[in-house]
Amino acid sequence: MLFFLKEESLHNDASLTELTNRLDISRGAVVNALKALEERGFIRRTGNRKGKSTDITPIFKRILQFKRAYTLSEEKLIALLDVMQYLNDRQLQDNMKPFNEFLALLFNTKGKEQRGKLKDDRWARDVVLKDFLRFCLLKGLKATNLTSTLIREYAQIALSSIENRESLIMAIFSLPGKEATWETGLEAYREQSRRSYLPEIKESVLDLIRHLGEIHRNPEKLEDRLMAEKDWFFDELHTVFGFDYQHQSRYEKIGYVAEKMRGIENDLETISKRFFRDLTVVMKNERADLTYYILTDDGQEVPLTSTILKQQIQERGLTGSTSTFTGGIPVVTSGFLHNLFVEGVANSIEGVLYEGIGGEIGELYYKNETGNMERLTETMTMELVDRYGLDFFKQVFFWDKNGYVSIERELLKNIKS
Question: Which residue, 1, 39, 204, 208, has most beta carbons within 10 Å?
Answer without folding.
Answer: 208
